[in-house]
Design brief:
By secondary structure, the protein is of the alpha/beta class. It is built from 17 helices and 15 strands. The longest helix is centred in the last third of the chain and has 44 residues, at about 410-450.
Length: about 450
Amino acid sequence: MSKYSDYTFRPETKKFIELNGFTEPTPIQQQVIPLACKGKDIIGISDTGTGKTHAFLIPIMERVDAEINEVQAVITAPTRELAMQLYNRAVKMQEAYPGLRVRLIAGGTDKSRTTLKQQPHIVIGTPGRIKDMFLQEKTLRVEKASILVVDEADMTLEFGFLEDIDAIASRMRSDLQMLSFSATIPMGLKPFLKKYMQAPVTVEIEDNTHLSAPKIEHILIPCKHMSYEEKLLEVLKGFTPYVCLIFANTRQQAASAAQMMRDAGYDLIELHGDMQARARKNSMKNLMNLEKSYVVATDIAARGIDIDGVSHVISLGLPSDLDFYIHRSGRTGRAGQSGTCFTLFRSEDEQAIKQLQTRGIGFKQKNIKNGVWSDMRTIHTKKEFKEDPLASEISKIVNRKKKVVKPGYKKKRAAEVEKLRRKAKRAMIQEDIKRQKKERAQLKQIEKRGNEQ
């Protein structure tokens, strides 16, 4: 169905859609809503900004009954911020359906504020807090709920909250309908989904239009002898953003980059998993109010949080999961606006850059020195990137010609190749250990400077 007016929803659901100003369903809404309304278990794979939240809120709205005084739907999110974001979108359901109770149950709040006089019809919250109120305090009764939505499921797994959801779901109805939404489906998530889902339908929405969008520039900047953080300070002198989102690959790198920026006089928002609850809360407040132009974050911490007006995205190296680069670049260039994605790279990022190019991303290469930009030769020409030495050595072994072919030569050749691979792997591990030691040493220096101040 191409328009919401084509659906045969009940009046309360139509009112909810009207309050949101929706006229046409997004692709994921178009596929998920009819299936969810029929009670199907669903695995939804989509990025932030595709409309997945209302893909499950609308079917819940269609099925909930305010006359029944019990919890009928449970929605989990891995962080307080994401739970609050979901709640702010769901609270309009109460306006559309008088008597309906939607309740936020999230960690980090005063327990007296989450005391329940009545059971809500819809619960939205973090897995740990819902589990505590359900199984320990026994003030929240979710065992009769017929719908369980696990939002940002891969992030839930990453944060280690899947066990909490397992503890909740195992005590719910045997005919429970489960909807799981995620940007990716990692292997560790599959056993959980298999345990609770009956013949699930997978709905995958790919929205990579921003990758080749003419209004977004993808620019590579070599770090050479500098660290990512040092090069970042040099790059920041070369432009004035509306909002600049800076992505680090680790919590330690995010903390290091944020501290170096502060030392250089930049006012910024820091967002990653190592922050204290109060600091994270203040960061989220500043983020929602767009009080600062620079945001330093990890991929996981920034997941699901919409920031309007991102003009620039900076990657401090490339993530091991290249889908994260796709998510990063998708933060800018929205609603027809232009955007720039800077990637600060070192030699270890070269292979990832090649892979992204095969996925259709057109990079330009530039450098900056003393605030002045200069164009460079397009990356991956023969002069710039040497052939992978391991691949070259393996090729020599596989393709060398023998005057006399002796018995067992194939096994000997395979053994030589395997020996080369093991040697290369050891070298890679040693290099990674050196890099981690360097990062830890830098972080200790930063902490030392902070303590001295």
